[in-house]
Amino acid sequence: MIEKVDFDKYSDGYSELMRKQHAKFGDIDYYSMQKARITKIISPEDSVNILEFGCGVGRNLPFIKNEYPNSNIYGYDISQDSIDIASNNNPDVKFFSEISDDRFYKKFDLIFISGVYHHIQPELRREVTSLIYDLLNDKGRIVCFEHNPYNPLTRHMVNTCEFDEDAVLLKAKELKKIFKAQGFKFRSSSYILFVPSRFKQFSFIEKYLTWLPLGGQYFVSFEK
User: Which end of the chain has the smaller Cβ count within 10 Å, N or C?
Assistant: First the structure.
């Protein structure tokens, strides 16, 4: 059995570890910015309540807030140490670590998920997705980003990253199947992040490559 990674062990140095791993490719914040931008295109309205599910130390939250300045932003994570760091860095975001709290039932209009599902044990993915379903308001939207297992560089980086020891990558069609099984309605899917941030001046070509399963990551979006 693969031993689950304890993210509390990595919370203090998580951002620095990520920056070191991506240093040769450029600024890692570029990827968070791109995902927030894509989410805004998919769900352009200023949703009332937005949740980042699996927010970790909060690297994505400033970019989500920038795209949705008039929304209430929330962060959820199972790692309390990570939430403590995220809270210090994002004082205008509300955080919680108990997903089954009735206060959050059907509370969110938009749920952003990035790089979470490959850390969820395959046998638990449908159960977690069912909990996410309960968090989402009727007609609410989900945008979920994941590592692309078809991309050899992505696979290498996951295989050499110490806090990805428990990672089980999943294909876009697998992720779609999980969400559809829980009653979500599929809206869109694309491959993204073909161009490293160091060469972001060439990122304009990405809009022509969304069909090609070689991007560093992909997203799937759903509606309840």
Answer: N
